[in-house]
Amino acid sequence: MCARTVKLADNTISQEEIASLATWLQQNQQLTKGPLTRQFEAEFAAYSGTKYSIMVNSGSSANLLMAYSLGEAGYLRNKKVIVPAVSWITTLSPFIQLGFECFLCDSDPQDLGVDLNHLEELLKKERPALLILVHILGHPNQMEAIHRLCAQYDCRVIEDACEALGSEYQGKKTGALSLAGSFSFYYGHHISTIEGGAITTSDAKLYSVMLSIRSHGWSRDVPDADRQAWREEYKIDEFREFYSFYYAGYNLRSSDLNAYLGSNQLKRLDAIAKIRGRNFELYRQALPEFWSQSSQHSFVSSFAYGTFVKNRLEVARHLLAQGIECRPLVCGSMGRQPFWIKRFGVTRLKVADQVHDFGLYLPNHANITPEDIAYVAQHFRSVAVPL
Ligand SMILES: Cc1ncc(COP(=O)(O)O)c(C=O)c1O
To answer: What's the pLDDT score for residue 325?
Structure first.
């Protein structure tokens, strides 16, 4: 028997929230997307500091919806995109599926966001229309410098903030730092709606296009002014409108059940982000001889504690034997993943390769206590060899 168990992730939905959901279920007829989804979207936009938010059924769906809608809205002058090599599969896969030419960018050695020198090289050489950022394990990218570079090369910026809900850069929430941002509410993320996700944006046109593409490409959810304009353009009467499709859309909707959970979870988000931030700091203090991730002008709503060790497998096995879960530092490098190698061969990138070969992350969630962290740190230090 281990002295304690420290899980990688824990449920954020409390027993009170389950009981409240059960009562709500018995009293409500509407379970599909409806008024509660719109309410949650308004609350989430207010939290993020954006004009709009759109709820979807996962963070992956949020990325797909952003990728497709940007093209359909006419916001991309070509189908070339820069994606961080250290990201998540569904940060990249929508662009591959949609036929984009994808360029992997190396990571900054401190915040693990995009490396500015490599970014500029790619912008100069490939002239892509789009950059998608990922705030790895909750650490914001160097947004000021990135926006300066991207403006210089006429490249639009969007964020995958699925690991960074509650993080801030210069006092603004991640996901609200560019044209659009995506979030995941899957189990193990900062808040959970079981499955779920959202997009934030302050761009009215993109908002209308995304609302349409989220639901088949019809106009039912689109704000009145755009809806009327679309109808007039194609001379569609109110009866035909039910089944008129302005885009070749998807169904990426969530439901009022998930939105009910989301509204309740949102009330606890500030407290959850604070605990995750505190835990990150406790790990940093407990492991001074190991590399620690850091970012500028930021509050970090930490997703997990990432570091590098020479003997990763030995460390992971030892920790597991002590009841402690850990994982590789997210996906490592996309340029070393089987799906990428099959298509393009191996892509070597200095820092991303280091993450791939030596990166690992330790648990952080809202139910982890300072005693848990001391326990993890003690066992980690007893075997781990710093890089
Ligand atoms: C950076 C990033 N993007 C997207 C996702 C996908 O989110 P979901 O699991 O809700 O589809 C994840 C999942 O962990 C992620 O870490």
So the answer is: 97
Centroid of ligand 1 to alpha carbon of 349 (angstroms):
23
Q: Note whether 103 and 81 are within 8 A (CB).
A: yes
Percentage, residues of the chain above pLDDT 90: 97
Distance 59 CA to ligand 1 centre (A): 5
Is the beta carbon of 186 within 6 A of some atom in ligand 1?
Answer: yes
CA distance 166 to 208: 25
Nearest in space to 81 (alpha carbons), one of 98, 58, 61: 98
DSSP annotation of 251 reads: B
CA–CA dist 167, 273 (Å, integer) = 8
Distance from C-alpha of 181 to C-alpha of 200, rounded to nearest angstrom: 5
CA atoms of 218 and 212, how far apart (whole Å): 5
Domains (range + CATH), the chain: 15-266 (3.40.640.10), 269-383 (3.90.1150.10)
pLDDT the model gives residue 1:
76
Rg (alpha carbons) of the chain, rounded to whole number: 21
Running DSSP on this structure, what letter comes out for residue 32? Answer: S
From the list 369, 257, 300, 276, the residue with the least C-alpha distance to 13 is 257
Q: What is the rounded CA–CA span in Å between residue 299 and residue 139?
A: 8
In this prediction the pTM is 0.97
Distance CA 162, CA 174 (A): 10
Question: Is 90 near ligand 1, meaning CB less than 6 Å away?
Answer: yes
Average pLDDT rounded to a whole number, residues 320-345: 97
